[in-house]
Design brief:
60s Ribosomal Protein L30, Chain: A, 19% strand, alpha+beta, 22 strands
């Protein structure tokens, strides 16, 4: 779509500009194109920080007489009606759109605020802390008061303003960025203000914690808000919206896919070159090269690896791996299984690098909840994610939900983006996605079935139907255990996902420009293009083959040797694709569209 050519470069510039200025390495992510996102482009970001667990600061306002302090950027008119509009109505396809004003981010102010906050925390100067996000002060004050044991009184006319013409309603709802609200004991306020002055951060005491049970907000002495804070923050209305399975689900699941399947050497070569050049499968270096991956000097791996990895302790080489994954095509066909499959893929991407999955977060993106079919998609997704995390023993530490991603009658595909974090004891022992040497044996771990429903090959041919795969999380957990145990003998490991074996092999051989020769049996099209979950390609030294086979057998995971590394081409049976030809097909699409 023409608008995508306008929107994507702006999004990339925004992410890159803000992150680079903050000094945050951008180490992972993915980009997906689909016509349903044309009116509602989604941008989901996952930011990971490291701290001692005994130094956590909570969003709670406790201790009557403690002060409510607003610090950071001044409050302006930007972002008014941001969440309050976006989270409550769809965009009409015609007529004037009630679109919100967009928040204006200032990464330099944010960086200073972060450093100021960290110094404040280091001296233990706050009782509670809350950042100002959606719905601004109205949300922050109610959540702080609700999280504490008493009430709160706020004098809104003491809020530092960038725009003095703002009404009290606008001040409450402004979503100006780079602001924090802290609860500070009176005995510590002088030092708090001193640190803010040192960092040149705007700060003002705007209220105090009370021993009542009301959130009272005044404007020049007049009470404009008087509510029990829990009713606003945690005990709001519970919607009982109609939930109904959309009619499209059974109709799409019943469709028999009619896809051209490559058989001859010429057809295999053409299919792979076509597949890896589609916008979804093409190389995204045009995007990722605009991000600083290595700032701070602790990045171990980043795009296009299966997961990003950061060293968090230079003495022990302890590290964390992070992956975010989604497959909206599967969620469209079966939102329950789609959520479990996205969870499994994110966890698998952590394990291929040699890290152990530990925790889950999520961003669940849907159309209008006033549509009973969308509510069904949402309910099934939540059920699938809950069941999946319970089965895999992974805690969900947080997340959010984005509704009303809809223009007119066109809703986005149900898009649960799942983030998984894992820990690796020594980043020096991580397993990369690709090999650097010839003479290694390549194995396919896992079973390949006729799983073309929701696949990239089907989408390329305009077919959205069929059935999504069924997640086998017990097998996924055994696979993760195998990947962790085999870390010492795996020279490379790369997960199979969108695009199947064809895309995985292409990415592996191109990464270090080392070819491979494969011998595949059975139906060649299924072997290359199926997107059966729970599969990984690993490179192993021939000397370790017997050891690997014993490990796989012990974990009840099937493996098959499919080829070896070396040469200057990707050779599959009698189909030969020179690496330079493969690289041209893979790398030219995105620059042509957006460069």
């Amino acid at each position: 779509a023409p608008d995508t050519r306008r929107v994507l470069p702006g999004i990339v510039a925004g992410i890159g500009g803000y992150g680079n200025c903050l000094g945050l390495p951008n180490i992972g992510g993915e980009i997906v194109f689909d016509e349903t996102y044309a009116g509602n482009p989604l941008v989901n970001a996952l930011c990971v920080g490291v701290m001692r667990h005994d130094q956590i600061k909570l969003a709670k306002a406790s201790g009557a007489g403690n002060l409510v302090v607003l610090f950071g950027a001044q409050t302006g008119g930007d972002g008014i009606g941001g969440v309050s509009v976006l989270a409550s109505e769809t965009f009409g396809s015609t007529g004037p759109a009630k679109r919100p004003s967009v928040q204006v981010g200032d990464p330099f102010t944010e960086k200073v605020l972060i450093e100021c906050s960290l110094e404040i925390f280091a001296e233990d100067l706050v009782v509670g802390i809350q950042d100002l996000g959606g719905a601004g002060l109205s949300c922050a004050t109610s959540e702080l008061a609700s999280g504490g044991s008493g009430g709160m009184r706020v004098e809104l006319d003491t809020v530092p303003l960038r725009d003095p013409s703002l009404s009290p309603e606008e001040i409450l709802m402004s979503e100006s960025q780079e602001r924090m609200c802290a609860i500070v004991e009176p005995s510590k306020i002088a030092r708090f203000l001193e640190i803010c002055k040192k960092w040149d951060v705007t700060v003002n005491v705007i209220g105090e914690v009370t021993d009542g049970d009301r959130l009272i907000i005044t404007w020049h002495g007049e009470v404009i808000v008087d509510v029990p804070p829990r009713t606003v923050a945690h005990e709001g209305p519970v919607y009982n919206r109609p939930v109904a399975k959309p009619e499209y689900v059974d109709r799409m699941n019943a469709q028999v896919l009619d896809l051209p399947m490559p058989k001859s050497a010429v057809e295999v070569k053409a299919a792979i070159l076509k597949l890896i050049s589609t916008p979804n499968m093409a190389d995204k270096s045009w995007v990722t090269s605009q991000y600083d991956k290595y700032v701070q000097g602790n990045t171990i791996q980043s795009q296009p690896e299966d997961s990003g990895m950061i060293r968090i302790d230079e003495s022990t080489h302890l590290g964390v791996a992070i992956s975010t994954d989604a497959n909206a095509s599967w969620s469209y066909l079966n939102p329950y299984e789609g959520a479990k499959l996205a969870l499994a893929e994110a966890a698998r991407n952590i394990a291929t690098a040699g890290a152990k999955p530990l925790a889950v977060t999520n961003c669940l993106n849907f159309g209008s909840p006033e549509d009973s079919g969308v509510m069904w998609q949402f309910a099934e997704t939540v059920r699938g994610l809950a069941d999946g995390c319970l089965e895999m023993g992974l805690p969900v530490t947080g997340g959010n939900v984005s509704f009303y991603n809809q223009t007119g009658d066109v809703a986005i595909l149900p898009t649960p983006v799942i983030g998984v974090l894992g820990v690796i004891q020594d980043v020096r022992a991580r397993t990369p996605m690709s090999f650097k040497d010839a003479g290694l044996d390549l194995y396919l771990i896992g079973d390949t079935k006729n799983d073309l429903g929701g696949s990239e090959w089907a989408y390329m041919h305009g077919q959205r139907g069929g059935e999504a795969p069924i997640a086998d999380l017990q097998k996924e957990m055994r696979l993760i255990d195998l990947l962790l145990e085999g870390q010492s003998i795996f020279v490379a490991a790369h997960d199979l996902s969108q695009g199947g074996l064809a895309v995985t092999l292409a990415e592996m051989v191109l990464h270090n420009n080392i070819g491979a020769t494969l011998t595949l049996s059975g139906e060649l099209g299924i072997a290359l293009l199926s997107e059966s979950p729970g599969r990984v390609v690993v490179a192993v030294s021939p000397a370790d083959g017997a050891n690997f086979a014993a490990m796989a057998k012990a974990h009840d995971i099937s493996i098959v040797k499919i080829g070896s590394t070396g040469g200057d081409a990707l050779t599959i049976n009698d189909s030969v694709i020179p690496l330079n030809e493969l690289r041209a097909a893979h790398t030219q699409t995105i620059p042509k569209l957006f460069g």
